[in-house]
Automatic annotation (TrEMBL):
This is Tyrosine-protein phosphatase. Pfam families: Y_phosphatase3 (PF13350). The keyword Hydrolase applies. The keyword Hydrolase applies. GO terms for molecular function: protein tyrosine phosphatase activity. Keywords: Hydrolase. PROSITE patterns: TYR_PHOSPHATASE_1 (PS00383), TYR_PHOSPHATASE_2 (PS50056). It comes from Microbacterium galbum. Gene3D superfamilies: Protein tyrosine phosphatase superfamily (3.90.190.10). Residues 110-155 form the Tyrosine specific protein phosphatases domain. Belongs to the protein-tyrosine phosphatase family. It is an enzyme of class 3 (hydrolase).
Amino acid sequence: MSSLVSGAVNFRDVGGLPAGAGRTREGVLFRSGNLVAVDDDGIDTLRAIGLRRVVDLRDESELAVDPSRLDDLPVEVQHEPLFLGSVASFFARDLSLEQLYTEIADASADRVVAAIRGILVDQPVLVHCTIGKDRTGVTVGIALAAAGVDAEAVVADYARTEGLLPAGRNARVLSAIRALHPENVHAEDLATRSPARAMRALLAHLDGTYGSAAGYLRAHGMTDAEIDRLREVLVE
């Protein structure tokens, strides 16, 4: 499924991905960009989905500017800001996506684990950030990989984002970054792209450093029982 919630960018169900002999369950884990522009139809869809939890990976400054529209939906909102420093700082440092994702995984590991624990608490659950690409991509990618989803399916789910971002939004964001940082090499990737190589590099980093995505979660406090539960929740 692609953008099925009216007003939410890059909203999709991660169900149906191959995981060994199984597949990820539909209607359990969703991912998207922010919910600031969700309209009445979008609220009705979220209600129909039965959404119970929202894991919001944005920081306080982003929440202040773009508050989520959830109306009276019976959802628990969990905030786990994943960037150490501001979004602007990554553009200022001209990080590559590979560097950014490694940094999120390593420097914000406790919050990545807390966000993935949120998936275990209530379902259906939505994980989102501002555009649903980087912080959401890292968190959902690690959760799926740890649950046993085939690595190339994790990569493909991440890579879908690029085709779901509005062209007008991309042009505006890129123009603003170029005005501030005209020499940046990585601006377009950071602002608008989700190339398969970036997720492959993150998964390779987790494999090389921790043995696997599940090993990464274990190293940062998740129990074997929680990882087993993640597999039960996400894979049928």
